Amino acid sequence: MTRTGLFPGLRGQRSYDFVPQLRCMQLPGDPAPVDPNLGSDATLNGSYFQTPEGLVIYEFELIAGTSPTPGTGSAYLLRLPIPALRWTKSAALPNGADLPIGSARIDTGSSSDPCFSRELLPTLADPGFPFYWAQSDQWVQFFHSGPLDAGTDTIAASGTSKTVTTNRLVDRVKEHDIDIHPIGTASGSNWQYMCATNITIGVAGTSFMTFDVTTKASVGTGGQSFAWRVDGIPWTDSGNNSSIVPMLLSPCLPFYMQAGWRLTGQLFYEGRRR
Amino acid sequence: MPTRHAPSSGLQPGLLRERGRNYPCDLRTASVSGGSTQPVLDSRWLGVSPVARWLRLDSGLVIVQAQITFPLTLSNFGVGDAYLMRLPFPISRRFPKLVKGSALAYQALQDPSANMLVKPCAIEPGYFADLPHGELDHYIGFKIPYYLQFGTATVDLATTTVNHACPWTPREQDFRVTPGNITSSANSFNFPFGIRSITATTFDITNRATTGAGTDITMGWRLRSAPPAGRHEFLGPLKPWTWSYLYLILAQFVYIPA
Prior knowledge:
Chain A is an all-beta fold. Chain A has strands at residues 2-4, 14-17, 22-25, 43-50, 55-63, 75-79, 102-107, 117-124, 139-143, 148-155, 161-165, 178-182, 194-200, 210-215, 224-231, 262-270.
């Protein structure tokens, strides 16, 4: 379906709708991936334009519906309307480079509170993903800077520890990726320094990452509330999730897909010679 | 024009004119106060680094994609306040501070795989003392949001000194320290850990007292420091981290040629 061009002043130029297609990809040797299903009420918009020189401009928006299933796999890949020219291919590095081809953004949705977001950098898909080896120039992957989550919890009266279950994280984080602050005016025996211990990696599709907030001694009567925030860096060690590529957008990272999950972006790249 | 490589064929069949071309996007250093030394990046290493490709539209607009890999054979990362990348055509510096596209600084094949979005920008006249005025239009730099470093330290004293490599002296609020274990030792932690005595190369993690024998604390720390006043915002040999082998700068940007 064609419509008026993106550039109103251009005559004879057209843009074309191209419904975004998001798939999961796995690393070699891992179980077959399961593609995401953004739901029957998902929003999937995309439109592209190609200049006479072969430059392709593609804008897209994907918003998960009320009951999405994130799928499983190492990374999300988005289909390009026209294959890209992977000009850095060489005999020494047949995969070519992770060439940036625009900008993108992921967030947890306008109705989520808080609405977490990360800037993403889209690059051509790594042909190391075996399933799409022959088609890697037609898919794009997204770099992110690390997992992000936050919340509040409470150590019960007379307790010394509380296991925090993160809302959306699966990947590994380290102690220095976690901030913990007591809430309110702690006094008496409630005032015990808190630390993060026993960081446990979740299993994609099954459980989320947990960590323990522990004090030196009992917090006393009334318990002690605390705030926590995880702002991580992509660690390769992902425990049971051996297939995770930690720096790439995936069902688990930088946060788990849920209702309202939104991926938007604008790509521009050199189309492949046919 | 710096097009030492033979131009490639057209982007698409049917196009009569040549369009996209590869070129070696030489990387150089520049210094605010002068005295920079140049890195030696072997452009023949694996045939890919550093390398870029440009596409010029009929309107004159230039689009550049670049991949700069710091090769295993690199013996000299250079010294200076910024890495600057050579352009295929001189850039119009009418608004040099405007962002021209997007780029990624990336610790490839590392754990963690730290990566940071950086912004390509033209160079203002007089910004770098040792970049000749006639060369200004031929280079582009990358502005960073912050310096990043992280690690762990074993804390067993009231004061533990930790080294950092930030090119400037960071601030107290730039640090995050989170203990990874805790002890019930009577001689230890009733108070949050403190940061003090920050110097150009070290900082101290402080506690009320020594932890006592057998009660060492593994402390995770992270330093994320926005550039201070002055001319520190460009990506360089020590920013946003100390560059190492196989690290990458990947960029795509659009600009109006001079």
